[in-house]
Design a protein that fits this description.
Elements lengths: L8 H25 L9 H13 L2 E2 H8 L3 H13 L3 E5 L7 E5 L1 H22 L4 H15 L2
Antiparallel strand pairs: 1-3, 2-3
Helix pairs in contact: 1-5, 2-3, 2-5, 3-4
Length: 147
């Protein structure tokens, strides 16, 4: 269903495209992240674990930038992961103001076990598109995401 807004042709076209993009993103995201409920993780918590798994220890600010979360939100997400024993904060001995976040052994085990499920869900959700269409979608999303 498109927009019922009675604007210019350009406005209607843009609104309809946006609605379809948002609905598709929400639908795919919901199906892709469904497996996280099995281990009681939020999408943001999974994002932090995945970020640290692939990039290694980072400060909270850098994690927030990587997963597109605000500093206040990322603090809460990391607090909750720390309470569950999945991450640890470590203060730098050279600069006491710098605190890095790293995976614990149980956090590393959890993300190593969950990430293959995540990849399978992404593949299953994008297989409706041909490889060429997937490349085209990637280019268009990148273009749209550049301010």
């Amino acid at each position: 269903m498109g927009s019922r807004y009675k604007g210019t042709e350009a406005e209607t076209l843009a609104l309809n495209a946006y609605i379809k993009l948002q609905r598709a993103a929400d639908s795919v995201s919901g199906r892709t992240h469904r497996h996280l409920a099995q281990v009681n993780l939020s999408t943001s918590q999974f994002g932090v674990l995945e970020c640290l798994f692939h990039l290694g220890p980072l400060c909270q600010r850098d994690i927030g930038r990587k997963i597109l979360k605000s500093s206040g939100n990322i603090s809460t997400v990391i607090d909750n992961l720390e309470k569950r024993g999945y991450v640890i904060r470590q203060r730098s001995s050279e600069d006491r103001r710098y605190i890095s976040v790293d995976l614990t052994t149980s956090g590393r085990a959890l993300i190593a076990e969950r990430f293959p499920h995540h990849v399978r869900e992404i593949v299953a959700n994008t297989k409706k598109l041909t490889p060429r269409e997937q490349e085209q979608l990637s280019r268009l999303c990148k273009k749209l995401g550049i301010p």
